Amino acid sequence: MRDSIARALVWVLRLVLPARGRHSGTVAPLNTEPVSLSAWSRPWTAPSSREVQAIFKDEHTRKLPELQRERVYAAEFAALGIDYDFPTVPLGSLVKREQVSA
What we know:
mainly alpha
């Protein structure tokens, strides 16, 4: 019963009050240009393979210890605007676990 009363009240209010906002009754013109969904229609935003190879094949960087090397990689990728999250560092060397006695 409440649903039918609420629907009737909403119907009456729509007749009495003018519509405002998004659904005011004004129709926006339709976009007649087709939308391209191809990934190749946008410009390439990632670094080129040459840029990435230059980062990983740098002789100075290869001589560094593993943790420093990963930090240099992260800094180089950050300069290109890419998040590099240390994917090759073994976590066992960074985190030492202690035995927990119960």
